[in-house]
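Run Phage integrase through structure prediction, thanks.
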Amino acid sequence: MARANNYGLKTRDLAKAGAFAANRAAREGATSYASAAALGDRWQAFAAYAKGEGVRRMEHVTAQLAAAYGQGIAARVEAGELSASYGQNLVSAVNSVMRLASQGQWQSVSPTKDCGIEKRSNVRQEAPQGIERGIVATVADTLRSSGQERGAAVVELARALGLRSKEASLIDARGALRQVLSQPPDQRSVSIISGTKGGRARTIPVTSQQQIEALTRAADAQDGARSLVPPEQSWREWQEGGLRNAREALQAAGVGRIHELRAAYAAERYQQITGHLPPMLGGLASREDDRAARLTIAEELGHSRVAIMTAYIGRSA
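Sure, done. The structure for Phage integrase is below.
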């Protein structure tokens, strides 16, 4: 039996209850405050729909109601009013909020199977967020001004070298900088070993002063530690502390994920290699040059499949 209206969330208002559930999860460390705010905003649309159907309590929200809501969204996606990605996010928010409020006692609704929202396209069609270096510099400066030099370094390394957040966190920046500076200027590269997906080490070329500067600042932030993770912290503590703060600083600047900085690196490298903008920005490199660039960049990003490059730079020419 529920303790009170809306699973004891201390409000009788359905719209507020969703925000309360998301904020509670953020306070408990189960999600970030930025994610909680996004969930709360998306829940508002469902709450308005539910009230229109005569449902005013979370205890009365059913999977059937959520599916009907999603089917209405599917119609709007088909009409071109909403993107498939945003439509799926709206339904996923209902699942997330109800799961949080009911302490896991919720039957999730599939945005695609139950609601009929078309699958998201993995083909990038617009410029990556953070492709403007000024945005990344501003975020890094903001983090440094609040004493978060390590988080700032992770952000800059993700943009400068196309690193995943774990790779940027676990890199020995001092060792990497020594490696780079010991090489001839036209043959410089850095080895990425720790934190890689599948344990696959790789080498990334260092071709610009910005990359060296990012490594230099990271080495300074690392201080005497083995990596950018503070020596007194576990990986999980860093992930839920400094790394989360870096993500939230990016989100506040309009960069949704650190992954977007990898995509920005890929777009920049594509232009560097082919002399053309990437396809999602209208570039028209030859098939041969396009293919060669994709192979090179996929390796630099740590991917074994070249097909995944469509998510970074758009469809092949």
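The longest helix spans residues 33-52.
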